[in-house]
Amino acid sequence: MDLDSIRARLVNEFRQFIETEYVIDDTETQKPFECDGLSIYRGMPLLVVLPETVEQVQRIMRACHAAGVPVIARGAGTGLCAGSTPSPEAVLLSMSRFDKIIEIDRLARSARVQPGVRNLAISEAAAAYGLFYGPDPSSQIACSIGGNIAENSGGVHCLKYGLTVHNVLEVQMVDVTGELVTLGGDSLDSSGFDLLALAIGSEGMLGIVTEVQVKLLPTPEVAQVILAAFDNVQAAGDAVGAVIAAGIIPGGLEMMDGLAIRAAEDFAQAGYPRDAAAILLCEIDGSQAETESNCERVSTIFKELGATEIRISQSEAERALLWKGRKSAFPAVGRISADYYCMDGTIPRGKLAHVLTEMETMSQQYGLSVANVFHAGDGNLHPLILFDSNRPGDTEKAEEFGGRILELCVEVGGCITGEHGVGLEKIRQMPAQFSDAEVSQFHSVKAAFDPPGLLNPGKGIPQLRYCQEYRSLRSQRDAKSSG
Amino acid sequence: MDLDSIRARLVNEFRQFIETEYVIDDTETQKPFECDGLSIYRGMPLLVVLPETVEQVQRIMRACHAAGVPVIARGAGTGLCAGSTPSPEAVLLSMSRFDKIIEIDRLARSARVQPGVRNLAISEAAAAYGLFYGPDPSSQIACSIGGNIAENSGGVHCLKYGLTVHNVLEVQMVDVTGELVTLGGDSLDSSGFDLLALAIGSEGMLGIVTEVQVKLLPTPEVAQVILAAFDNVQAAGDAVGAVIAAGIIPGGLEMMDGLAIRAAEDFAQAGYPRDAAAILLCEIDGSQAETESNCERVSTIFKELGATEIRISQSEAERALLWKGRKSAFPAVGRISADYYCMDGTIPRGKLAHVLTEMETMSQQYGLSVANVFHAGDGNLHPLILFDSNRPGDTEKAEEFGGRILELCVEVGGCITGEHGVGLEKIRQMPAQFSDAEVSQFHSVKAAFDPPGLLNPGKGIPQLRYCQEYRSLRSQRDAKSSG
Q1: Which residues of chain A make contact with B154, given a CB cutoff of 8 A?
Q2: Best A171, A191, A409, A446 residue to mutate vs chain B (most B CBs within 10 Å)
Q3: Which residues in chain A have Cβ-Cβ distances shorter than 8 Å to B206?
């Protein structure tokens, strides 16, 4: 059957149990679903469907399973790895109508929510009980908890409070055949295999999440931010290591380099020192007593390691202002460059200075500037490669440069993603990280959940044939560059 | 081929690459491997092999895979769910010679160790750097980190520091075909599916762990224990909830009931109030300032909720003594009863009083006493059922009573294991927790890692046919008891 007939048949079937307007088959209305936050990847879907109940999701999955049609789930569309990019053969299943907070349990310190609920909305609802939800991606105003689960999202505070995988207790998920399964539960341990962690970060490849129970954390009594300026990046990197080695776990520990500092300062007027080579922003939170003592210890460490300036926020307004600069770093860089490509990789903390030096060399090779903003405490880099998509060849150069940065992360013992996921974007670098045996294992697990391979096909896990090509091309390149 | 011929062939093959004495084929030398810590389950192996290198493990797995012979991995043998009970058709693979601490990385706060290293040995080696390994099962002097991974072990401090799954960064594992794969890594996030968490708690059913990287935590500046006595169990249960709801996360929060208190006091002379209906032991740790302030807050909460006595440890010796009573509760109960059966289940904190009352009713029905010792903070129960294996029918009654306790845990929204795992012991209660769709999913995942089903067969996951029988028998039983 051709795609038009399949579309017509599914539209007809879906409209028997979903209101007409939520089954979208015309190109114009489909347009907003064309890409996620990484808009260099685009595609049109077979059709878009927006169910509202678990039963509707089950019926959609049953119909698609019977017809052999792939399904791509989508949350709020803020993802940065092209994890929910549509494809013309696949139904795009938007979970945005699953937007209810079902229950907040103060004693168990947990919230039960639908996957379309915005990340920040959970903390807002929990605030009345003195609780909050830990992971705070920069997109937290807009991104949904279902999308956070798909990508195992982090945020500034994940150094202390962990990623999504550390903060979810249970998910309910509709599998490829339409069966509803529960993974995880209230308890710390759970019998059987730990399928919960497997589902988190699985990018819609194992099932469609329809309900989530998250942990809530007690809101710290106080929080203060320490800004420290350094006249070289090495010293700033050493200071990060020294804080961690001293046994202090800051709420967040962020680094920005010169280019990022100046762009952010022009945009946000946060009072950052424009002439610094690097700044650190270190948030200390906890009880009053604990915060005071840790602020003092961290300031001492920063001074000993050569900080040229130290500022401790004296009010909530000042704390918010110091963070405003960091949080607006991406749009700020957007003002100084036509386009930018935000990378995401992780390295061991000790390799920070080495990786920054290598990136500087590559930046000169490719003729493209890089601004660095990163979660230094947990070694999660976000280099922003500046380019101009109207300049011929620039986009390709930026993509290649980005790929090389990811390979560098793996070379120093790190990982090709920190919190953005793999999706379509980083699937090319997966063989740099994983052996064929490991990639095969991913395929086996995928097949265990999704034997016909209908859930978000082509994302996340590369084909073995591609891995072999990659290795052969890369060894040619390495031979050339060393020859 | 009969078992004797298979044994002879494998012994011959193994001795080509492993010293003769480490390939054990005589019954007498095999005897110590007959059971793990749950000695009511016993069995003899086909043969016992103790490899020393990863390559030897790979060769063993290749040989067994080729011959279609099952393999049961064993750590220190301290497990409490019959997870490594031998079987006459299977090779018993003891990892006890993998006992080296490979590296401690102070800056990354991690340790790389072989799986046979004892849990406590990691903290001892890390102490020089002011670090320790979080999970602390009661058996920590003896149990190995590989066994901890198999069962996702916890301990008194897991309320604050998490279970094994929260403290392992990477495992290297030999799969059923002899291939070496790495799961997880240094970074907080990892690309691809999260197979690391899947491996933790998988009871040797997915692969043989050969190397482990664990997180280390900074040793808290100080720790103090608060003992609070209550004249009824309900009040003690409420006090646990109130501490958690106040936003305090104690290092540990344990409860003991009257029978357990008196047995422990007779044994350890810790100064427990012998006439209390329940005591709580609450450990507060952190910086000096934080600990002082939290001790005060917790004491106030305990007083408000009716504590009849409160004692705060004033020295390390006093803290150790207060814990000694709790830690020796199992042997202490062993003195007052010929045998005891230690159960392990988890319930929501709010159901504590209800579950204790129900257990009391069952205790009268079965005519067997129960002493309760538990990790109250995270709802992990350890009821000790007292029985006498020399009294005909007593063992069977204890087992049935234990099964009913696990079912009760599931009924109130809990889980049939807290930290001991499923193994042979709790496989019968798995259908109380999981639907057929969920059990099928476990089988698919198992098959993805181990297509021929050679790794620790018959443990952890029940057959679907058994699940159906269980449901039918249980509905008959429920009809009878309500009829």
Answers
A1: 188-189
A2: A191
A3: 193
Rounded Cα distance between A115 and B463, Å, is 33
Where among B218, B244, B275 does a domain terminate? B218
In this structure, the answer to whether residues B11 and B78 fall within a common structural domain is yes
Per-residue pLDDT tens over the stretch A333-377: 988 998 999 999 999 888 888 898 899 999 999 999 999 998 988
Closest Cα of chain A to B191: distance in Å? 6
- Cβ separation A181–B433 shorter than 8 A: no
- Nearest residue of A to residue B287, measured between CA atoms: A290
Domain span at residue A90? 3-94
Residue of chain A nearest B448, judged by CA positions: A444
At B276-335, the pLDDT tens digits run: 999 999 999 988 888 999 999 999 999 999 999 999 999 999 999 999 999 888 889 988
Distance from CA of B335 to the nearest CA of A (A): 30
**Interface size between A and B, measured as CB pairs under 8 A:** 246
CA nearest to B297 within chain A: A287
pTM for this entry: 0.84
Q: How far is A166 from chain B (nearest CA, A)?
A: 8
Count: domains in chain A:
4
Instruction: Report which secondary-structure segment, H or E, holds B375.
Output: strand B370-375
Which domain CATH number covers B321?
3.30.70.2190
How close, in Å, is residue B460 to chain A by CA atoms? Answer: 7
B416/A191 CB distance under 8 A: yes
Give the end of a domain, one of B55, B79, B94: B94
A209 with A227, same domain: the answer is no
Longest dimension (CA), chain A: 71
Q: Are residues B54 and B159 in the same domain?
A: no
